[in-house]
Amino acid sequence: MEELATLEDLPQEYRDNLEKLNLVPLWPSLRDVLPPETPQPKTKPILWPYDTLRPLLMQAGDLTPIEKAERRVLVLANPGHGLENMRASSVMYLGMQLLLPGEWAPSHRHTPNAVRMIVEGNNAYTTVNGQKCPMERGDLILTPTGMWHEHSHEGTEPVVWLDVLDLPLVYFMEASYVQPGVHQNIQGTSADTAYGPGIVPTPVFTRQNPHNPLLRFAWKDARKALENMAVNQPDAESIQVTYINPETGTDCQNIIGFSSLMLRPNETLTLPLRSSAMVFHVIEGQAQVQTTGNNFDMTQSDTSCVPCFAPVTLVNKNGDKPTFIFIADESPLQKKLGLYSERPNK
Ligand code: 1HN
Description:
By secondary structure, the chain is α+β, with helices and mostly antiparallel strands. 15% of the residues lie in helices and 33% in strands. The site of 1-hydroxynaphthalene-2-carboxylic acid has 11 residues, from β3, β4 and β10.
């Protein structure tokens, strides 16, 4: 492709005249906004080992009372985007949140969608629109856009979870805001609205706003599904299950997609190059995430991120035990916009 003229190639007087009228020449920036063949992501491959961040998160528990934090979170910020922008990727926000025994994180609702992947601790729960969603390690709890949510803790040990939000996108769209709420009365548990496996209500009229009946995915169910799949579909390209909205059969949230993957003992899985950035979080076991310039050795509760079109190979170096990885990616958004693509990883 032809190299294009730069800003400096233009006379200063001409540039000043443009600027005064809020005008900008396209050609000096054209190759930046439209790079040939592949996007040039700011997102860098990055690993956040849990054992390095956990002590600092516990320290935050001593330093900042929950009343002064509302949500006590250390944000997993990708330096490629600038730490202050609090982005793991262009679309995804990640944070590790700490709730101490007896604490309560007050009710609110906001436009960004959130999920929690529970990392450690017992006997905490999130209340989502009046439904009690108990938190156990590996569980996935949804708080879709506009739903009231608050966190409570009746246990004796700290509870930590990984928050995944589409905040960077929603903020960029100037659509991000929060509304404070009042303490919710618990009207039931997440299981009450979950119906049964493969069973959903039949509406007489098509729902105008498809709602999300399933707000909590228990890890024991997802793990069992993966184990069954490994036994019954041993030739599947990957042993992986997606968290869906059972009423629509599509991704459980509109923007970010969530799945869990099992690497069998000694398994190596090479993914196609994908147009979406990906987040990996180890629920159980050990995995090596191999990508350009980095081999991330990940153990339980570690989190990493890779940019779009990065080559990714996942390796379970353990010969005895499976590894289970939680994955978040931007493919639901990209598919809706017609922007999603894959290429072979040669
Ligand atoms: C939020 O509401 C929670 O409810 C966690 O636990 C993290 C990050 C940014 C904006 C809102 C929560 C958040 C958040």
